[in-house]
């Protein structure tokens, strides 16, 4: 039985990205792992051929081919059920693991008696150029105070006790936030978590990614999870309500007009953030004002981000 099961789902990634992702897993200094790859697009012959060729030359690789496109959530749950390891390590088909990633995270889990570890990351663009480094260093106590307010966990850098994930039923269909939903459920069940300052992942930012293509979908999912966190504190059974997300969505404005307006406002708001980062404060302020006028809910997103930043500073200082 391998100690770690690395799980990854592939759909329509560029062959270069997929190859780099697979090679980075194979190059790990820690060797006692199985690598489960779910083929969620059986019609993509190029990806299919690539993955099966790797499986032929590396016995640690197991390929599971879906008959039809199931989507990320169902594909990951399929891999979770097939896994034999003690720990699950997540990987995406367009990212790159540092060669010490599994070794470092497993060491942290064992030395600190943890259930869950994530790492910091460097963002890369579609050409592999570095475009930003994101360092977090949170203890279990700090994560307990921060995670209900924002997701600081980089999904494809996670190593977690597989038994706990199975007890939670794996991932749920919470669009663009299925990972955040699972981390919160684990947290409220007492899971001992840690985020490492070690940069152990190159995270590829693509224009067609879920968060980039439809921020409104992610915004609604995150709002739902915040509501659920408040209910869950008083009533732990709220996390088991399978129909809660559907009822929440039916109460929201999901019209195409609203989606287009919010997504445009979100894009302008982030242009404003980049202007602030470049010390163009006047331009940044004008862009933010424009975004808020286009959709007032963008102002809510802005205030949430400011509130989380302040909360994080307080938690890091006093806990």
The geometry reads as globular
User: How much helical structure, as a percent, in the residues?
Assistant: 40-55%
Counting structural domains, the number is: 2
Q: Give me the oligomer status.
A: single chain
β content, as a range? 15-25%
Radius of gyration: 20 Å
Order of helices and strands: EHEHEHEEHEEHEHHEHHHHHH
Give the count of helical stretches.
13
CATH class of the largest domain: Alpha Beta
Structural class: alpha/beta
The number of E-state strands comes to 9
Mean pLDDT: 94
The unreliable regions are none
Give the biggest sheet: 9 strands, mixed
Q: What is the CATH architecture annotation of the largest domain?
A: Alpha-Beta Complex
Question: Could you characterize the architecture of this molecule?
Answer:
The chain has about 325 residues and is α/β, with parallel strands linked by helices. It has two domains: about 210 residues, Alpha-Beta Complex (Spore Coat Polysaccharide Biosynthesis Protein SpsA, Chain A), CATH 3.90.550.10; about 110 residues, no CATH class. Helices cover about 50% and strands about 15% of the residues. The chain is built from 13 helices and nine strands. Strands 1, 2, 3, 4, 5, 6, 7, 8 and 9 form a nine-stranded mixed sheet that branches. The longest helix is centred in the C-terminal third of the chain and has 22 residues. The two termini are about 40 Å apart.
